[in-house]
Specification:
The structure is a single chain. By secondary structure, the protein is α/β, with parallel strands linked by helices. It has a single domain, classed as TIM Barrel. 41% of the residues lie in helices and 20% in strands. Helix 10 links the parallel strand 7 and strand 8. Helix 4 packs across helix 6. The radius of gyration is 17 Å and the shape is globular.
Length: 232
Amino acid sequence: MRTVKRSDSSYLFEPIVTVSGGILGFELVKKSAHQAANKQHPHDAGSQTFHLSAEERIKNFFDAVTLACINADIFTHNNFLLSIRIDYEIASHIVNNAAMRNVLQQHNYIRLTLDAFFPEFSPEQDRPVLHALSEHGPLWLDHFGEGNTSLTLVMNEKFEHIKISQHFFWQHQGTLSFRQIIEHLQPYSQGVIIGGIESARHLEYLKGSQIQGMQGILWSAYSQEEFIQSFF
């Protein structure tokens, strides 16, 4: 594990809010990725990592996990979950790193969230990394509606929560087909989370939908200092 201080200012905690107004948990993101998402970058915040090498992305993941462990008391005392997004290279590293797997199992509020472009999501693709990873804890699916995601994937694999892409939501918001998609996804997970919530109108579109949570700039992200002050 790398050295990350409790006062680290390079990460933000984005709240994931329940339909009743409570907090299901948070997504831990680098500030640059959060800023890119707020500017409606083509592939959301995850595209900001494309220019990084696999080694750099793995190092960033180690930093995120370290920060998650530093804040363990907040998550356990409040029953919050913490989503950390990973790609194929990071997933492969976890599968082959017993020490990291032990850390994740000891801090069971951490949820590994798989990127929509995970190569093993492609149809007819073998999924050894995905299946090995799923043996060590619940997985979330990120950006449903983009990349290699599909209803078939959701039906055949186990995801604790499914996060619908903000761009998919913006494109289909308020339509009957969008509500039907939520209904189709619901039986295969413990809940659907909608990304890209920016206004009261978005909340109105989702009223009555069978969703578990929401995420977006309607709710301000917390710096590490603000996170401690608010929940410790």
